[in-house]
């Protein structure tokens, strides 16, 4: 890796969305019955659980985007 570059390529296009995504993560985890560690360390969580949370977040974000697009084109 080049010097000065971050190893995290998941940069948010809208930095203010960070809090909304964090809230969505907790909502999805609660719906799935998965406890998110309070200390923020995910190392003891099963990959299946973290993947399930991420997958459901993606589905929900796609659903929200589809609804917004449908609303724009129906006018």
Secondary structure blueprint with pairings:
Layout: H1 17-32, H2 47-73
Protein name: Alpha/beta-type small acid-soluble spore protein
InterPro entries: SASP_alpha/beta-type, SASP_alpha/beta-type_CS, SASP_DNA-binding, SASP_sf_alpha/beta
Family: Belongs to the alpha/beta-type SASP family.
Can you characterise this structure?
InterPro entries: SASP_alpha/beta-type, SASP_alpha/beta-type_CS, SASP_DNA-binding, SASP_sf_alpha/beta. It is globular and about 45 Å long. Helix 1 crosses helix 2 (47-73). 3% of the residues are buried. The chain has two helices and no strands. 57% of the residues lie in helices and 0% in strands. It has 75 residues and is an all-alpha fold.
Q: What oligomeric state is this?
A: single chain
Report the average pLDDT across residues.
86
Helical residue percent band: 55-70%
Order of helices and strands: HH
Q: Low-confidence segments, ≥5 residues, pLDDT <50? A: none
Which structural class is indicated by helix and strand composition? Answer: mainly alpha
Tell me what portion of residues adopts beta-strand conformation: under 5%
Main beta-sheet annotation: none
- Structure annotation, total helices: 2
User: How many angstroms separate the termini?
Assistant: 48 Å
Number of distinct beta strands: 0
Based on CA atoms alone, the radius of gyration comes out at 16 Å
**Global morphology:** globular
Keywords: DNA-binding
Family: Belongs to the alpha/beta-type SASP family.
Pfam families: SASP
InterPro entries: SASP_alpha/beta-type (IPR001448), SASP_alpha/beta-type_CS (IPR018126), SASP_DNA-binding (IPR050847), SASP_sf_alpha/beta (IPR038300)
